[in-house]
Structures are given as C-alpha cells and as structure tokens.
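Supplementary notes for students who missed Thursday's class. We covered one full example, reproduced here. Read the sequence, then the structure, then the short commentary at the end.
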Amino acid sequence: MSDEIKADQVLDCSGLSCPQPILKTKKAIKAMDSGQVLMVTSTDPGTNKDMTSFADKTGNKLLKIDEKEGSADFYLQAK
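Structure (token representation):
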C-alpha cells in the first residue's frame, strides 16, 4: 500500500498569514463529509503549530504534514 494520501479537496492558502489559513480550513472542512480528506497548502510558518492545535481542538484528524522549502501541505481528515 502506498503512503500517498488522496485529498478529496485542496485548499491553497499560500501567501496568507495567520489566522487566514486556519479560518479557511475551518470553513472548508465543515462543508466536507466525515472521512473525507482536505489538503491545505500554506506558506505561513506559524500554520504548522496552528494546524496541529486546530486538529486537537476540533477532533479532525491531522494525517500528515508534508514540509517543503517555503511551504507545507497539511492533510486533515474530517471527523
């Protein structure tokens, strides 16, 4: 089995700073069905900590953080 996670929806928050990536993530994941996966791309370094906290507080599962140079992809599974 592959480690690749298939995203049902992609949200590009590149260039946005805190709290925009989390606010947009919250809105997008709320509209998704349970079990669906949202991939969020962010260039704000603070999003890493924010996304982990968001997942803990909301019960949505943070499946993976794929860090690249200057950005990161966050894979969240809707609860």
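Commentary. Residues 9-77 form a domain with the Translation Initiation Factor IF3 fold (CATH 3.30.110.40). The chain has two helices and four strands. If anything here is unclear, bring it to office hours.
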